[in-house]
Design a protein that fits this description.
It is a single chain. By secondary structure, this protein is α+β, with helices and mostly antiparallel strands. Among the domains are: 140 residues, Rossmann fold; 100 residues, no CATH class. The strands form 6 sheets. Strands 8-7-18-19-20-17-21 form a 7-stranded mixed beta sheet. It has a 5-stranded parallel beta sheet with strand order 12-2-1-16-22, with helices on one face. Helix 1 packs parallel to helix 10 and helix 3 runs antiparallel to helix 4.
């Protein structure tokens, strides 16, 4: 019945399904374990407040890739949205909200006026207006004041937050993670700097639904792919409903599910605490990070993310707590973040090498490729893999 079977109805799977159906006129079966489409981008309208809530934490679309933006624009209208994040810090016994990424406004919030202006002048002179300087680079400077600034950001903003996020000690955290934390030489408080920053007018679920709307696409929810699909890495064969399947299989689920006797790939997961509050708003920005909190990383208030329905006298917030991934624990059973260390990469490479021996199996997406993709990266990656497959 089907030319293509796709495992997973998240962004990666949806892009592949849409391309096979609409560009190549292929019949496509999408198998999704969850009871909804859109993967971790899934959102819904809260019945009590009318607020559009992101079930798996905030998802804010931003990209510098015009092709990705144009592609997704076929399936949604956009609402312009510039995301802002602040960190809640206690400095000298006082609570301070500090813009992130750390910038000139952040420096003024954390240091006495004269000292702050000195640091800003040094950064402007050394790097120029608008530069993004990693704290790792600052720590290697000759200027003692800039080194102290880097250490301040590292200690107050970065290290405890990152330790909670990854469940690792500072010594275990890859220095490449530190290198990505910037200080921005600017007065601008936007979290992203990409030219395209927006959210789908009717939400991500509606957008993905439009991607999967072709009559050639059959989406089956609440279906573990193993109920219908047998992917045998040792025999290098695939069966659908007990019969040999020679069509294409696009796989976007956990790679280690293909080889259950192999050591599992480690991930980090998240525990969410949602609250509905009788308040116009709870906090001044969409997301407030809590680097100094012992277990919580951030609070997001969805009412700050624009859409046409959010006019309630109530508000919805979600608190995030990183935890170790455990497929047998309902609270921690969603694998959010691949763990980037040598041990994990060794396991992944072994599984990937086996999967690549199956001629009609293509791995796509964050879980199958064991990479952390932003939404635009996930779309770009899937489009690239589709074009590569088409050219074979």
């Amino acid at each position: 019945m089907y030319d293509v079977v796709i495992v997973g109805a998240g962004l990666s799977g949806a892009v592949m399904a849409e391309r096979f159906a609409n560009q190549l006129n292929k019949t496509v079966l999408v198998l999704e374990k969850r009871t909804h489409i859109a993967g971790n981008c899934f959102d819904y309208v809260d019945a009590a407040t009318g607020i559009l809530v992101h079930q798996y934490g905030p998802h804010l679309f931003h990209t510098d890739n015009a092709s990705v933006f144009q592609y997704l624009s076929r399936f949604t209208e956009w609402v312009d949205y510039r995301h802002k994040v602040v960190a809640n810090l206690t400095l000298v016994g006082q609570e301070v909200l500090v813009p992130l990424p750390f910038n000139f406004s952040s420096i003024r919030a954390c240091f006495p006026n004269e000292h702050a202006e000195l640091l800003i002048r040094k950064l402007r002179t050394r790097y120029g207006e608008g530069a993004r300087v990693s704290i790792l680079a600052l720590r290697q400077e000759q200027d003692e004041e800039l080194i102290k600034l880097a250490d301040f950001v590292y200690q107050q903003v970065f290290i405890n937050y990152t330790t909670k996020q990854w469940g690792k000690t500072p010594e275990q955290i890859d220095s490449a993670v530190t290198a990505r934390v910037p200080i921005v030489c600017s007065e601008e408080n936007g979290y992203f700097s990409d030219p395209y920053q927006c959210v789908p007018r009717n939400g991500y679920t509606a957008m993905v639904g439009n991607m999967l709307a072709s009559p050639l696409i059959d989406v089956q929810l609440d279906t573990d792919f193993r109920e219908r699909l047998n992917i045998d890495l040792m025999a290098k064969s695939i069966e659908l409903d007990g019969q040999p399947f020679n069509g294409e299989v696009i796989y976007s689920a956990n790679l280690d599910l293909l080889q259950l006797d192999h050591e599992a790939l480690p991930y980090r997961s998240l525990r969410f605490e949602f609250e509905t509050l009788v308040l116009k708003t709870f906090q001044q920005e969409t997301t407030v990070n809590y680097p100094q909190h012992p277990s919580m990383t951030r609070i997001t208030e969805f009412k700050h993310i624009p859409n046409s329905r959010q006019n309630a006298d109530q508000t919805v917030i979600v608190k995030e707590f990183p935890v170790d991934y455990d497929p047998n624990d309902p609270v921690a059973s969603v694998p959010y973040y691949p763990v980037f260390d040598e041990y994990s990469q060794t396991i992944f490479k072994q599984l990937k090498a086996q999967a690549e021996q199956v001629p009609n199996l293509t791995l796509v997406g964050r879980l199958a490729q064991y990479q952390y993709f932003d939404m635009d990266d996930a779309v770009a990656n899937a489009l690239t893999l589709f074009e590569k497959w088409k050219s074979l």
